[in-house]
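Deviations from the work plan: none for this task. Representative record:
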Amino acid sequence: MRTGLSEKTQPTASAIDDEPVQLLTPEGVRTESVEYDTWVEDLTGDDLIAIYQDMVVVRRFDNEATALQRQGQLGLWPPSLGQEAAQIGSARALRKDDFVFTSYREHGVAYVRGVQLEDMTRVWRGTANSGWDPFTVNMATPAVIIGAQTLHATGYAMGVQRDGADSVAVAYFGDGATSQGDVNEAMIFAASFKAPVIFFCQNNQWAISEPVGVQTVRPIADRAPGFGIPSIRVDGNDVLAVMAAMRVALERARTGGGATFIEAVTYRMGPHTTSDDPSRYEDLGEREEWAAKDPIQRLERYLDDQGILTDDVRTAVKAAEDDAAKRFRAACIALEDPEPMTIFDNVYAEPHSGLERQKREYAAYLSYIEGGTR
Amino acid sequence: MTQMTLAKAIGAGLRRALTDDDHVLLMGEDIGELGGVFRVTDGLKHEFGAERVVDTPLAESGIVGTAIGLAFRGYRAVCEIQFDGFIYPAFDQIVAQVAKLHARTNGAVTVPLTLRVPYGGAIGSVEHHSESPEAYFAHTAGLRVVTPSTPQDAYSMIRMAIASNDPVIYFEPKRRYWSKGEVDLEEVPLPLDKARVAREGTDVTLIAYGPLVATALDAAEAATDEGISIEVIDLRSLAPIDFDTVEDSVNKTGRAVIVHEAAQFGGLGAEIAAVITDRCFYSLEAPPQRVTGLNTPYPPAKLEEHFVPDLDRMLDAVDRVMGRENSLTGWTAR
C-alpha cells in the first residue's frame, strides 16, 4: 500500500447477484442461507423481541412526528416509514465506539444510537441546529446536503486507522445520493486507503419524485466493485438479512479488510417530506406491492410462528410504544424557542472581532426596540 | 534569523507544526514525493511518512470532506489545493460543511482545518491558475481567511492557522513564493487576525494584502518623488478584517485606496470602502478608491498586466484621492 498503513491486498471485487440477500420472506418464513445464517445465529428470542420493539416504537414515533407537523408543531418532517428494518437492523449491529454519519431520514439509526426522540425533532421544529451532541452517541448531526457525509465517514475511518483502533465508520445515504460526486469520491478514498468504513445505501426507490432508474440503470450495489469495494445487495425490509450483511461488513472493516458497500433494497412508504405530494408521481401498484413486504409485519409473522410473540409480549410492546409516543409528544411540544442572541453562538470556536462587533450592535438594537415606546 | 523564500518559510512552518503536534497531517495532490508543484512540502514526506503527508486522489471535495472526518477524530488536517482555480469542486464541503459544522453541532465539533491555496496571477500561466477567489470564502460565516505577504508572516501565520480551532483558509501569494526575507523562527507573531502597518505615511492609506503588498510598498516609495506620503497597510487577515487598524490610519490620512487582484464587483474592496465610509466619514478628504482586477475572467497571460493592479494604477488612484490630475480628469494642466 502506498499509505504504508497496511500490507494487505485489496479486497476482491465480485459480481453482484441482482437478487438481494434474504433470510425472512415477506410471509415471515425463515429461509436458509449458507453464507449469512451464521451471522445471526446468536440472536435469542429476547433479542428478536427487542429488535421488533425498536421497529414498532420508531414507526410510531415517525407517525407521531408526521402528525405533529400537520398540527403545526414541526416545520417539516421526513418520514422513515417502511425503512425500519434497514435502519434498526444495521444500527443494532454496531458497537458504541463505531461512528455513524447519516442523512436526515435515519430516525431508526438515531434511536438505536441512543438519541432521545424529542431531540430528533429539534431541527425540524427550528429550535436548534443540532438535536444532540455527536460525541455522546457517536452519531454526527445529520447532513442535509446529499452525500456530503460519506466523505466525513471515510475521513473518520482514516483517523481510526491512524489511531490503530478497530472502530468502524458508517455512512448512511440514499439511492439519490449515489449520483453525487462526493459519494463516488468517498469510495475512491476508502478503497485507495483501505479505510474501515461501511457505505450503507438505503435504496428506497425514490429521490423525492425521481425513481431510482434516473440514478442508475444497474443495481446500485454493482457500482462498488468497480471501485474495488466488495458489495452486498440485501433485502432492506428483512431485518435479519440487514443485520447479517452489516455484521459481515463490520467484521471485514475491523480486521483490516477495508470498506464494504451495502445496498439495502427497501421502499419509502411515505412522502419525501411532509411538504411533498407523492400523488403527483407515485405508482400506486408498486406501493401496494411493497406494502405486502412490510418489514414489521414480516418479523411479526415470523415471531408469531416461532411462538415468541405471546400475548404478554404484544401487550408489553404496545405499552412501550404508547408510552414512547406520549412522552415524545409532550417533550416535543415543550421544546422552547431559543433566545435571539444565541444566533451568534458557536459560529467560531475562538473570539472573532467582526462577529463580536455585530453581536454588540444587534444586542443594542434589540434592547432599544424592546425598551422603546414609539 | 534566517534568509529564506516565502515558499520555504511556509514549508518551515509546516515542518514545525508536524513536529509539535502528532495530530497534524498534510493532505493534497502531489505533496508527497514531488513536494507539491511549488515544492512547499519538499522533503516532508520523507521526514514524517506517508501517513502524515498524504498524497490523495485527485478529488478536491474528497480532500476537504475526508479532512472533516479526520477532525471528528481529533486530527488537524492541512489540505493543499493545488491552484486557486481548482478549489471550486470543494466549494460545498468548504462553505456548507467546514464553515458550518461547529455551529451545526452546537459547538461540539471543532474543525481545525487549514486549507492552503496558492492564489493570484502575474506568473504567465494558463486559465484556472491565476485566480483570486478569497471573497467567496470571506463572505462565508464560520471561515477565517488569511494571506501573508512576507516570508516571516508566511511562517508565523501558517503555524497560527494550524493551531487555530477554527477552519482557516490560508491564501498563498504564489507570485511571491520566491521572494526572500528574514525569518525569525522563534518570533512572537502579531495575532492572526491583526493587520500590520507595513509603511507609515501621512497623506494616503493604501490598503493591500497578499501579493500586492510588495507592489503597494513600491508605489509608496515611488510617490515620495512627488512629495506624497503613503501609509501601507498589509491586512494579513481577510476574515475577519482588522478594521480598527484601517480606521486609525484613514482617520489620520483622510484618504484611502484599496487594492486587490480579485475582480472589483462584490470584492473585499467594496466591504472595506463601506466600512471606511461608515467609520471615517468626517475624516475623509475624498471618496475611497479601489484598484482591482477587472470584472472579467482572468485573461490570457499576455494580457494579465492589464488585469493585475500595478504600481501605475495604484498611483493613479492615489492622484484621484489627492485631487491631482489623473486618468479620470485627463491632462488638465496642459
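Chain A has two domains: 37-338, 340-374.
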